[in-house]
Automatic annotation (TrEMBL), chain B:
<dbReference type="InterPro" id="IPR007630">
    <property type="entry name" value="RNA_pol_sigma70_r4"/>
</dbReference>
<feature type="domain" description="RNA polymerase sigma-70 region 4">
    <location>
        <begin position="126"/>
        <end position="172"/>
    </location>
</feature>
<dbReference type="InterPro" id="IPR013324">
    <property type="entry name" value="RNA_pol_sigma_r3/r4-like"/>
</dbReference>
<dbReference type="GO" id="GO:0016987">
    <property type="term" value="F:sigma factor activity"/>
</dbReference>
<dbReference type="GO" id="GO:0006352">
    <property type="term" value="P:DNA-templated transcription initiation"/>
</dbReference>
<dbReference type="InterPro" id="IPR014284">
    <property type="entry name" value="RNA_pol_sigma-70_dom"/>
</dbReference>
<dbReference type="InterPro" id="IPR007627">
    <property type="entry name" value="RNA_pol_sigma70_r2"/>
</dbReference>
<feature type="domain" description="RNA polymerase sigma-70 region 2">
    <location>
        <begin position="23"/>
        <end position="90"/>
    </location>
</feature>
<keyword id="KW-0805">Transcription regulation</keyword>
<keyword id="KW-0238">DNA-binding</keyword>
<protein>
    <recommendedName>
        <fullName>RNA polymerase subunit sigma-24</fullName>
    </recommendedName>
</protein>
<dbReference type="InterPro" id="IPR013325">
    <property type="entry name" value="RNA_pol_sigma_r2"/>
</dbReference>
<comment type="similarity">
    <text>Belongs to the sigma-70 factor family. ECF subfamily.</text>
</comment>
<keyword id="KW-0731">Sigma factor</keyword>
<dbReference type="InterPro" id="IPR039425">
    <property type="entry name" value="RNA_pol_sigma-70-like"/>
</dbReference>
<keyword id="KW-0804">Transcription</keyword>
<dbReference type="GO" id="GO:0003677">
    <property type="term" value="F:DNA binding"/>
</dbReference>
Length: 143, 177
């Protein structure tokens, strides 16, 4: 079979047609579907736009009232620890004090260590003098 | 392309069922034929065709023409529906067992075909091609669509479609020797 014959054969498949009963049933179903989907579409569009406007208004009010800090400080809301500005400042101050105390401890320990070293070196010097005296005494006795 | 199609599409987008009905009348045989040649069973073809038109109708408001006939969009939906169908069922069609009655083909079809190459043989040969080759052959030679339109449906360039068409024809010639 050459290309022309093949194309002719393919073209003859145009004869395939849907069943008339199927075609009319589907058309009727689509007509019903149209009414439902249109209503649903309009309803969903209306809900979506109402929701968007509502969210925008709430956001505007929230910002106008001063955001999270001032909203949570109000009389209607309990102040949450760690969120309030003053609490955060006092927590930071506590941490700073702890750090300062640790630095002082380190300084003290390092001074203490220097003193201990000096004492050790003095002791070793004295012991060498004693040994020298002992040696001289022993030499004197031997004479 | 259907006469006054752009106006009908615009009216259908506004929710006019009569306008969509006219588009349906024009495109139903084409979409049904496209699907039937690919799946080979009338009942499956009817189910997929039904899904195609329901999807189209539900998404009508979002449809954008972009200069192509409305049919291109319908073929795309039908093509995806056939792919989904095979993904779900994973069944192989034995075309040898498919009769004219099952396909719903008019009896005159077999009289028009050459005695050596009856419609079963043609359908069987088309089924042996890969998906995109089937799509291109059906749209080009059964539905007489332009290369540009076929390219839009299968998401390829016009040149790619020409190459696929050439390859598919050669394969069919080989198989029908």
């Amino acid at each position: 079979m050459n290309e022309q014959q093949l194309i002719k054969q393919l073209n003859s498949l145009k004869e395939i047609r849907p069943d008339e009963g199927f075609a009319s049933t589907l058309k009727a179903q689509l007509a019903i579907e149209e009414m439902d989907s249109s209503r649903f579409y309009l309803l969903s569009q209306s809900l979506v736009s109402s929701f968007s406007v509502g969210v925008a208004i709430l956001l505007f009010i929230f910002i106008a009232l001063g955001g999270v800090a001032s909203t949570l400080k109000g009389p209607l809301f309990p102040t949450l620890e760690g969120v309030d500005k003053n609490t955060l400042a006092s927590e930071a101050s506590d941490i700073q004090n702890k750090i300062d105390k640790s630095i002082n401890d380190v300084d003290y320990l390092s001074e203490d260590r220097k003193l201990a070293r000096a004492n050790i070196s003095d002791t070793s010097y004295e012991s060498s003098e004693d040994e020298e005296i002992d040696q001289l005494l022993e030499d004197a006795i031997s004479y | 392309m259907l006469e006054g199609e752009e106006n009908l599409v615009e009216e259908a987008k506004q929710g006019n069922p009569e306008a969509f009905g006219q588009l349906y009348d024009h495109y139903l045989p084409k979409i049904y034929r496209f699907v039937l040649i690919k799946v080979a069973y009338r009942e499956q073809a009817e189910d997929i065709t039904q899904q195609t038109f329901f999807k189209a109708w539900r998404s009508m408001k979002r449809y954008q023409s972009k200069g192509y006939p409305f049919g291109s969009w319908l073929y795309r939906i039908a093509r995806n529906s056939v792919i989904d169908h095979y993904r779900k069922t994973k069944e192989e069609v034995d075309i040898e067992n498919v009769s004219e009655e099952i396909l719903g083909v008019d009896n005159t079809l077999s009289q028009n075909l050459d005695s050596k190459f009856e419609w079963e043989t043609i359908l069987k040969s088309i089924k042996s091609l890969n998906d995109i080759e089937q799509d291109v052959l059906i749209m080009r030679f059964v539905e007489d669509m332009q290369h540009s339109e076929v390219a839009r449906v299968v998401d390829k360039s016009e040149n790619a479609v020409k190459v696929i068409q050439h390859r598919a024809i050669k394969k069919l010639e080989e198989r029908l020797k």
